[in-house]
């Protein structure tokens, strides 16, 4: 079997997605996700100019060797653009291998370790009544674990709360005041616990905005509310920052959605500074790399909590669901659904019932693509927001 064609498909059904399609001489086709939110075309160019031409004529069954060629052979290792490109090729090759075997991907990863994959959804509100309505809406959709984000008194535009554009075509600028946030958030969790009871698993994302000292204070103040995890409390690239948080709190910690390789986790895992690894298949070099990460994490009783916003395409999400069903140290899967138009382009195969995902039983990843519908939804330039303190200083987003 030989690879005879490999192409990049870029579309924008509600938001932008970058998909790789690899075709073989035996008519088997594989799909991969290369979507890097806000930097999509950089990965598309990396793939079409530097990666895909080198695959033509190669053996699609040699997944590990292809991965090593793209990682070690490029000399320039790591980084989100490189690792998203490698991930897309890796997913497409796993898709092909599983289709050739006539099995859903999770069967090639060891088979099912559970019946279904638990997810968490997102609830957010400017104030408590709006937040409670949002939690109830997620519960009505079936979610059994919920991430809580809240507006902060005195701030107009806060992460994950409804925003308005500043200047059309330019990034949204959000507001931040760490002192106001640290004063406000414990009361939000106390109110949510009082309203929804002790059993609902609650999560919270700090979006890398605190110092280690501030994070330790927040973690201690949230301990009475029994969080499932506290996410991204410090800037992720500073692995040693979590030592101070760990010394002061038993709150479970999750980090890693901006990591690209296992080396980003080396200190965090071996020193047991975290409880959940967050890297999505799409930005971490694919199934090959995330399976190794999870096996490494398992040695330290650290579980999966893979990143799953709407900018991980349904192709990347399908791969996460197969992995989540198969690995023993599964924790939870983030899943917030997709824009309605995305369903015209991607037919994901997996199902979402009672807050749980279950992969397709079709051979491969189980995702199919409607390329005609894709043409009706072209790419549109878009940006991630950025964040400023009240005096105008740029802060972490
Ligand atoms: Mg996060």
From TrEMBL:
Annotated Mandelate racemase/muconate lactonizing enzyme C-terminal domain residues: 129-252
Keyword terms, alphabetized: Lyase
InterPro entries named among the record's database cross-references: D-mannonate_dehydratase-like, DgoD-like, Enolase-like_C_sf, Enolase-like_N, Enolase_C-like, Mandel_Rmase/mucon_lact_enz_CS, Mandelate_racemase_C, Mandelate_racemase_N_dom
GO biological process: amino acid catabolic process; carbohydrate catabolic process
A GO term for molecular function: mannonate dehydratase activity
SUPFAM superfamilies given in the database record: Enolase C-terminal domain-like (SSF51604), Enolase N-terminal domain-like (SSF54826)
SMART domains, alphabetized: MR_MLE
EC number(s) from the headed UniProt entry: 4.2.1.8
Protein origin, superkingdom: Bacteria
NCBIfam families (alphabetical): ManoateDhtManD, PRK15072.1
Name this polypeptide is given: Mannonate dehydratase
Species assigned in the record: Crossiella cryophila
């Amino acid at each position: 079997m030989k690879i005879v064609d490999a192409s990049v498909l870029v579309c924008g059904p509600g938001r932008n997605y970058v998909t790789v399609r690899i075709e073989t001489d035996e008519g088997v086709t594989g799909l991969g996700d290369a979507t890097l939110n806000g930097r999509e075309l950089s990965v598309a160019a990396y793939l079409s100019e530097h990666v895909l031409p080198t695959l033509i004529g190669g053996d699609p069954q040699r997944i590990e060797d292809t991965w090593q060629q793209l990682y070690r052979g490029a000399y320039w290792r790591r980084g989100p653009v490189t690792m998203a490109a490698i991930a897309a090729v890796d997913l497409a090759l796993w898709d092909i291998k599983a289709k050739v075997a006539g099995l859903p991907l999770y069967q090639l990863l060891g088979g099912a370790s559970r019946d279904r994959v638990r997810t968490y959804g997102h609830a957010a509100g400017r104030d408590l009544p709006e937040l409670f309505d949002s939690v109830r809406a997620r519960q009505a959709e079936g979610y059994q674990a919920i991430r809580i984000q809240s507006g902060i008194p005195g701030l107009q535009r806060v992460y994950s709360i409804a925003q308005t554009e500043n200047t059309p075509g330019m990034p949204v600028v959000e507001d931040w005041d760490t002192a106001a946030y640290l004063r406000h958030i414990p009361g939000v969790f106390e109110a949510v616990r009082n309203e929804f009871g002790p059993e609902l698993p609650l999560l919270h994302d700090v979006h890398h905005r605190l110092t280690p000292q501030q994070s330790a204070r927040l973690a201690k103040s949230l301990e009475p509310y029994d969080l499932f995890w506290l996410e991204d409390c410090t800037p992720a690239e500073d692995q040693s920052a979590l030592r101070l948080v760990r010394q002061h709190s038993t709150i479970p910690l999750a980090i890693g959605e901006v990591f690209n390789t296992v080396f980003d986790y080396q200190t965090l895992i071996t020193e047991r500074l975290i409880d959940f690894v967050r890297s999505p298949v799409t930005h971490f070099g694919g199934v090959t790399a995330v399976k190794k990460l999870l096996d490494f994490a398992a040695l330290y009783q650290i579980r999966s909590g893979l990143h799953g916003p709407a900018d991980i395409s349904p192709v990347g999400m399908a791969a996460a669901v197969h992995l989540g069903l198969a690995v023993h140290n599964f924790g939870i899967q983030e899943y917030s659904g997709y824009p309605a138009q995305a369903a015209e382009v991607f037919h994901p195969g997996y199902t979402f019932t009672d807050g749980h995902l279950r992969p397709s039983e079709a051979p491969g990843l189980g995702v199919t693509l409607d390329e005609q519908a894709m043409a009706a939804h072209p790419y549109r330039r878009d940006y991630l927001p950025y964040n400023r303190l009240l005096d105008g200083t740029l802060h972490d987003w």
